[in-house]
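Figure-free illustration: sequence to structure, shown twice.
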Amino acid sequence: MAKKILKSPGFGMLSTVIFLFSVGVFTSINSVDGDVVFEPYIAQAAQKIKKGSQSPLSTSLLRKKLKKP
């Protein structure tokens, strides 16, 4: 009787552990390589910061902020 009662929660917990392990493996396989993606972006962003150029959105937000009393 006790085996039947404990069999369902045990199977549920085992299934949950296997599912979470599978998600972790799948996520690590499909993860982004930071060296390939982030370094070119950082180099591009650093050049824009050095030039002092602003995006049109930040310029318009700054103008709206300055207009308010």
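We now fold a second protein in the same way, so the two outputs can be compared directly.
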Amino acid sequence: MPGIALDVRADVLSVRTPSLIWIGHPVTVLAVVLLPLNDHLFKVWWPGPVSGKLSDVAGLIVVPPLLDLLIRRPLVSIALTGAAFTLVKTTAGGAALATYAWSALWGPAQVVADPTDLLALPALAVAWWARGRAYPGAVRRARAVIVIPFAVLAVAATHSVPVMLPDSAYAVGTHDGAIVVAVSGGEESRPTKTVFASGDGGWSWAASGSPPPPAVQTSACVPGEPTHCYRIVPGLLKVEQSAGGLWTTAWEVSPGDQDRLVRRYEPLFPKYAGKVASLGIAVQAVPGGHTVVVANGVDGIALRSADGGWHRLGWAGTAGFAAAKAVTLNAPGRYHRLVPGIALLAALAAALAALCCAAVRSALPLAALTMLAGGYCCLAGLNTPIFFDPQAVAIGLLLLAAGLPWAVTIAVRVRIRLLASGIALVAGCAEYYAVMTPYRLWRSALIGHYHLATGLAVLLGGVTAAAGVLAVLRYGVRHAAGAKDLRTGGRGGSGDGRPR
């Protein structure tokens, strides 16, 4: 019996022997050990390009044999790893997708696109070499089995980097003849404050380590002119100036455009959203007049040049701020990513409500509620800071899978009129567009505020659903046969729609 057991274990292990041996190669084992050491020690002790690329090199060696455990095609594993790595490191969409995926599996994380990381791609050749130089052996096979869980954890750990806070300009001041702006950002666990300085009136900026972050001030006066002052309006992108003792608007972004900007800067994790509002202001005298700089949170800064013109400057990374980086106010708005899903759920509810009115005294309402509960669970599972909540989505899909055949069976059994089914279908389609149309009008700037679009969507959706129900009650229910026909669904039978 022990011999048979050993043979069985050997047969099971031999199914994926090539992949196990590949993982057990000394080069792969070294890369597995290097991943956590580099991410948790080397990057802290010796930060720089070498330690930054070392994790990419090690990861490109470890991932192909892990992937080969699933697909058992070494060359395909190498190719898929290289293609995915290139996509993530060269496109914002690829980096965002990787962020969602790793956040779903291992908690909040952020993957940043960096084309210079492609310098690590030759490591794939090392991985292929390790695969070709691997020879079967009991010791190596055992070592591979031990290394696998550490390899998975190491690859996951290297991508679960801290969440980055959005860069936000929160204060403005002057120092040694220069305008300085304080910007907050950095890792969520270790937020940083950076000071950018400009010596040419606010047109060009550079990081400066000498001046401390300026204090937040909400008003400032022109040097030498105590009656000529500027102030910000809390909560708005707006600046007022004093003129003869009265305050008038000097610059502003309309509340509607500000609302659209808020949606443009909506982060992956809502709890880390930055403010899109004027937070601080400073005035500096320059030849020919004066300049005004306003800190506008994640939208960057607003600059009044000496000639009196106002300009928005967006965040430009290490270059500070630049007019070319400002988000244009006429860009299409971005409604919440779940709005189309909510519209589909509303359409399903409207169609099912109309059908329930045509299937009186049946269990169709219960089947409809089951389907709606499933749709709601799916939406709730998608509305998370990470990619999705697998448990909620799984429950939702199970409820939908149970409710749909149940509803179809009841509809066939009670013999719902074809006209009623047609009305329900039209009501569902109309409901979807009734909910989506206000958001699309807001996206095109035809509706001024996002909350107004939401209110109109609720109103139009309710009216459309009610119209579908009334249409079925008026035209889709069998009246000619009298009350008995209503109870039996048009044929002799019991009140619950089942044949006798």
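Summary for the second example: Residues 450-476 form the longest helix (27 residues).
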